[in-house]
TrEMBL record:
The gene is CD86. It is found in: Cell membrane. The keyword Signal applies. This is T-lymphocyte activation antigen CD86 isoform X8. Gene3D superfamilies: Immunoglobulins (2.60.40.10). Its main location: membrane. It comes from the Eukaryota. It comes from Odocoileus virginianus.
Amino acid sequence: MGTCDSTMGLRNTLIVMALLLSVSTIPFSGAASLKSHAFFNETGELPCHFPNTQNLSLDELVIFWQDQNKLVLYELFKGQEKPNNVHPKYIGRTSFDQDSWTLRLHNVQIKDTGSYQCFIHHKRSQGLISIHQMSSDLIVLANFSQPEISLIANQTEKPNIINLTCSSMQGYPEPQGMYVNLTTKNSTITYDAVMKKYQNNITELYNVSISVSFPIPPETNVSIICVLQLEPRKIILSLPCNIEIIKVEGKESEQTEKRVELQEPDRSDEVQCDVNISKTASGNKSATDF
């Protein structure tokens, strides 16, 4: 009995290997691949769209999916799953939806981005006959975190400068850029900077950040927003960092000093930071304290 089972398993394996060697010579049904999107660590769908006009049962079919490297994700041989023919990287990560003829790939990673093919053969007494094939492209994405602004204490020789960083984490693909908008009552100024990026060697996700410096504006109320540019028409905005500039009349003995105080209270859900800047009305020097 064990010898018979072993022989049958070997026979099935040889059949699948023969199919894999021959599929490249058979044209796919459909001129273009169907594109589907999935998010990192979630589930992606690889459709087969089998019309089944002959109303064939699974017991009459051999169904399998393979990736662009000809590695088998899933095989259903006459209604029975064949995990022994599945590549180890896909073991335990797939489930077959018989109603929609769709293979679901679970816990998708950035490395899973690529092309996939499904193949359906009719098992007849005279052998296997190919009756359906389909190609699909899986695109794996990861949402970047909302950009966060962090103010940096000024320790330079130019204390009338505001320094800040903006960062966003754990996203894919690589964003196009990052910048800061400083908005007053009458204008908006954009400050660009070189975007620093770090890509994790395992997950392939990106962390990005910029550092920006700009002079303290004369207006009394200023709002700073960090912008992460994902695509030409797709951006993510930080919560606003609001700055209130309070002018304080200094004594004559203090006119040589312009004092700037940055006070950053706890963040809320609507505003990332409220900063109060107080400075004397005269003088050409300043100091920054948090």
